[in-house]
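Instructor's aside before we start: the two examples that follow are unrelated to each other. I chose them only because their records fit on one page, so don't look for a connection. First example below.
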Amino acid sequence: MKELKKTYDPHSFEDRIYREWKEGGYFRADNSSDKEAYTIVMPPPNVTGSLHLGHAINNTLQDVLIRWKRMDGYEALWVPGTDHASISTEAKVVAKLESEGIQKTDLTREEFLEKAWEWTREYGGRINGQLEKLGVSCDWSRERFTLDETLSDAVLEVFIRMYEEGLIYQGDRIVNWCSSCGTAVSDIEVEHEDETGKLYTIKYPIKGEEGFISIATTRPETLLGDLAVAVSPDDERYIDHIGKTLILPLVNREIPLLADEYVLAEFGTGAVKITPSHDPNDFVVGERHQLGQCVVIDTQARIVEGYGPYSGLDRYEARKRILEDLNAQGLLVSIEDHQHAVGHCERCSTTIEPLISKQWFVKMEGLAKPAKEAYVRGDLKLHPDRFGKIYVNWLDNIKDWCISRQLWWGHRLPVYYCQDCAKTIVSKTRPENCPDCGSAALGQDEDTLDTWFSSALWPFSTLGWPEQTQDLKKFFPTSVLVTGYDIIFFWVIRMVFSSLHQMGELPFKDVYFNGLVRDSQGRKMSKSLNNGIDPLDIIEDYGADALRFMLVSGNTPGNDLRFFTEKVEAARNFANKLWNASRFVLMNTGEQSDFNFAVEDLEIEDKWILTKLQKTIDSIQINLERYDLGIAAGNIYDFTWDEFCDWYIELVKSRLYGEDARSKQTAVSVLIYVLREILRLLHPFMPFITEEIYSYLPEGVKEDLLIKETWPHAQEELSFSEEARIVEDIIEGVKSIRNARSEMDIPPSKKSAIHIVTQSSKVQQELREGLDLFRRVGSADSVEILDKETGEEALTVIKSGYRILVPLAGLVDYQKELDRLTKERERIEQEIKRASGKLGNSSFTEKAPAAVVEQERNKLEKYEKMFEEILTNIQEVEGKL
């Protein structure tokens, strides 16, 4: 048998193993299989992106689930892919061109797109290689890109269907305009930040009178586009003025003073300026009163022509000039500090400018209702469920979705306009002639679709829709979506309503939200704080398994995770512990070739570890099914480190080195069996180290690769509850002995006798089965069970039903022993006080289940007996000082 290397070195095998998995086709799913399908679609990272910790945690969690289900007998498909990321990719291409002295406007659309494809081919796909370093087991043969021909066909198909259904329309609406990106963005692509701005109070003269109406605004530059001033119909200050005409300052336009329920009388002066082309609320008021439109700020955030000295000025420079002129005319009443939320572009942080613009929209009301009902009925489950409130609230307050973008990179709208009769034609391919007038003079809409329009189709477009492919039949709907909670609006909800509308069913039944990875101080990682962590650096320093295990073991659904290098080190130490334990086990197999064991040959410690293993298997299964992956990781960690490495291996060492060949063979067989189960259970979490150790297992107990293994399930015939309870009790006793010896500075190498004192024949019988365990791990040279104490000076550990005495002759410092007993007496006093208080509380004794109350009474009785015994021990030690 080949020998496991002495030192754990992940770099010596991680790349090799991944190559073997990938080239062997072990990630590929078979769409003709009879197995039940289990499908995950990867949230597509930007095609030109690089791996960051957000990708690392999200993809590690997906990989745990897909590896688990693959081992558990499912036909498991994990679809990878990337997103064309229209705004961010175009911005990067434009920046690259500008660095070369080329403006976007210098190129034709076709020339620019060729540059964008060059950029994508050069930098795209880097993240895939980085994901491979992490160990993801997605089916690379099914990799998708949102601009692939098949996915693009799905996008056009959906647009045309929804247009024909009247769900997609073109209209003049207020949109969020980013002057830097040069495009409209949707509401959820706007980040609102609280800022300290100014509130300006300005006087508007009343026509034909000496009086004024004062309004308050945070954006005086939009005054140029005012078409009315509105007040609340119930505001007594203005009732006599409603219907009068005002003179718009600086412009001298006559505008009405009107009443509208929208106005809050308590805000500012109670009178607000109405600028329908530059404010979404004003747009609604303007439509209600048929005010029309007046655009005064263009797409570059400059004042349009026709406004004298202000035309051509940037919006903020125009604000400054307008305020100066208002002040000079005596119309600027006051300037006050004002806290308000200001919208910024999610991509570039530029302040958003609300503009009236002709855009394409999706009608959302009819789509939102079934998406909400699916959650309310319980068909769609969110983990954790607290995100359900956010989900429902957003759908309840949804607005029509602006899907057109003034960009070149992306899916171009399949919309054509006849230049002779203005007919709008929606078609997948360019029509030869106008269907109305027959003209061949047709032009395609210049806009592209919002990136999220194509991403919303991801669960079924990646499987071949609109064609009825075998992949679509086998693997849709998918099983679970694993994603960050920060894109619940951007992506999750849009996939839900898109799938319900196009496919007639949900795209997935479960959504598992992972949190953000923050720095050790809880701050979001950013370039400005210089606190970013490169996952590839962590993999280089500690190995992929350590990073993966740290990310999973610290994860709870929906909660953010703080990144500490010390946690990665702890995960690496766990890998090292497993490596060393495995090496020890394998080195002790000797010439043994048969690793089967008979139940009748099992010794009590064998039965204990096998029982603990079955419980661990059950716990991991339950927690994985609940998406409590962090708890599941803790289950296998605790079992491996504490029970297998620290206890079982120690308990059987004497059998490995002893003369009893049958006992040794059984011990080795159980060690190999448990180690194999550990490797299978741990494989989804730490796939590289488990695969490498597995390859060293003896022939006859393994497949050729661990990735092909089946998932463990608990076996009732290997659960021995009574023997396990006895060993647990012995282990607790040994721990108490070790703690007591440590407190008294007695080194483990100093052996002593152990006397177990009890008059209970039942307890004596139970302890006799595991008597030798005390000797092996309790620093004992002999162990005896006695009916009563010998009277010699001894360190005493009180357990329920018996006492453990360690004779102290030549071993102990009596003052330290007194201090230890005193602390133990104080602890027991607190337990008695707690139990007595509980039993003295009628709310507890009358309302708690009878079994719980009885259990508490038994505890009190036990502690009272222990208290009497410890007082006796204290008196004895005091007598020796």
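Example two begins here.
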Amino acid sequence: MFAEEMLERCARLSGWARRTLARDPNLLDPATLAAPYSSVRMQEEIAAAAPGDEATLARVLRELRQRVMLHVMARDLAGASDLEEVTATFTSLAQCCIVEGVQRLESWMAPRWGIPRSACGERQQLMVVGMGKLGGGELNVSSDVDLVFVYPEEGETDGPLVLSCHEYFERLGRRLIALLHESTGDGFVFRVDMRLRPYGDSGPLAASLDMLESYFATQGRAWERYAWLKARPLTGDAHEALMKVVTPFVFRRYLDFGTIQSLRELHAQIRAEVSRRDLADNIKLGRGGIREVEFSAQVVQLVRGGKEANLRVRPTLAALSALTGRGWLDPKSHEALRAAYRFLRRLEHCLQYQEDQQTHSLPLTNADQLLLAEAMGFAQWPALLDTLSAHRRSVERHFDSLFAGDSTTRDDDPLEGLCSAQAGAERVESALASLGFEQPRALVDRVNQFRASARFRRMAASGQGRVDRLLPRMVRAAATYPPRDNTFDRLLALVESIGRRESYLALLLEYPAAMSSVARLVSLSAWACEYLTRHPVLLDELIDPRELAEPDWPALEAALRHELSVAADATERQMDLLREFQHAQTFRLLMLDLSGRLTLERLSDHLSDLADVVLRQVLRCTWSQLRGRHRDLPRFAIIGYGKLGGKELGYASDLDIIFLHDDPAADAPEIYARLAQRINAWLTSHTATGTLYVTDLRLRPDGASGLLVSALEAFASYERTQAWVWEHQALTRARFVAGDAELGMAFEKLRSDILRLPRDSQELQEQVLAMRDRMRQANPNDSELFDLKHDPGGIIDVEFVVQYLVLAHAHTHEALTRNTGNIALLELAASLRLVDAATAVRAAAGYRDLRRAQHALRLRGKAQARVPPEELDKQREAALALWNAVMGNRR
């Protein structure tokens, strides 16, 4: 379409364009319609006009706005631009006018008042914060601009007349508003809305950062978090300081599911107002309108943006894409919402083109309806309505499903009587019995005791209300997973623990499937219930849209490393990030385990890999922060022993570790000692997020009385000349875990050399037997039950036999030094004819069964792994047969 035709089409479809072109036919050069109206061009046109006072600047900006409006309209109605170009151009226009306005107004105010400065003499600049669609870079063609004025700190001006910074910025703000907002013979630039500032219309026009932070902390409401989500500073130079105040207010550190209810209430108020004012056809506020698309994205951003920084994007379409990429929005819904949003926004623009009015209501006259249909590319008005209705129904369905979680309960539900003192107890107990609960009266009593407890009374009224709504759902969820009474008891214990953290209660209300998942989890494992109670933030893992799969450790470590790097200047945040990562991955492995998708060996491998990742990143972070470090990368290594070294970690295993260095620097011992202390502190310190691991450092040379970090040469000397046999037994399950790779290789070679030292088999056997006896005495079993770990025929017996075989025969069979696990080493010993093959096979199978039984007991929350002897009689006999065959039937 030729440029002249584009302008003619504008004049036919828009009354505003027709009048504007009639008044000034040369307002816009048709040749410029070939390309978008750039921000550079806007700035050049303002500069070329050289406005010398406010009146001239006001005229220049209004004429610029008319040219931009006509230019955008012509390209849009001709199909030469897309939605992104339209919104970006008007956003650029607003930003350009605001920036130019502030700069020129400041220069005109300077001769009288000078420059505002802080108490330290630093220049203070006004930050004009764009909110809403201006902040999101998606301004519509006849939109208000929502602004907030913020300045860094208090002080005063340095001119002939002195004003406080507050007074100065209020004057500057009022003049900027007049420059943009006042309607003159040339029209207006942008209508300005300042009601989103602290305290709204009754608040000061400009606020310092301190005041803003204090307001957020004491007065900030849920809807204001929504309003500030897209906030973007347009002027000034303290943007980073501003966002440090805004970001934690908008995006809470922990998952904030209470936001869903707050936004549900906010939107209900909007819908009520729409109904009261008969605005059903309003394409912004009505059902299935623009606002519901925006809410659909922003509610998830507010809930999860604190943990997932990649969701903190401002434009709506970009937010929908981010949610889809993370899995919080399925691709089909994403495409439907995206298409609806683009259609609704273009319809919004075509409506506003007609008379340059901020309207979102469909036209009432046939003539205007036909013009709008043509502008949108439809031959007839009914065809436009049909397409509009389809998009709005799509948005409405998605919006209603998103906000439908905390639905109201039925008045006739007998389980509602759990929370009512007036309800008939017999009716409630009958309902419980019909659901399969064995002790209905006891369950009701437990609920009543909880609701009468000091913990419940200390909850906020809103929290008590959420608990009361949850209780019937907990009963129904528990009824699905026997033993029902135990499952409910565990659910109640969980709710008691998290009751003062309303966000978690909100999660269970908003996501009924999460309650079902929790019930299943706690029915299968008391330990899982305890772990979830200690770390309730893990409830979020139950609604993670990603398919539960075995972890990809390299990818997970890369993501963790990135998060830690972003928080490089915040030690406490880094420590919490590590804990959140460790807890989340442990919980995901637990869910895989309870679903039967992991063997015990595979689970132990993953838990060991998780510990390796954490240790590597703890070492990296602590070294980077260590004062006095003398090199970029430390010549330092973490060595894992015991279950970590043997890759047999369980959920609650300690980490047996030692520290080595190989650094000739004179001050290296002191530096690495401080590093080791810091590493241990990072691992064991309890923060608000919990702990990482319990560590045991006593396997180092000379035990607890020895140096915390050993030089490699000194460690080698100790192992060769001073170490006890039990220390060499421990070395059979040691491995390099983290640190300098070259030092790790040196340790592995040294380990092999030590294990291959020739030993007198009789003397070795005596010492192994003595150590086994000391362990038995340290872990007595006075019960009639079989202790799977410590009793004769238990796990320790098999492990001691393997260690003996390694130390006795590695000097002739180097393959025995490989740290491949007890079962693989038993199989290797049998292939080398060091032990009878059938005996080894039975012992290996029995050892696997013993470990599985131990693991199952711990999942059930048992403090000791003990069972009636007859339960694992064959496995015990197999272990005893191996012991007798290798150790000569001696104890």
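The chain has a mean pLDDT of 92.
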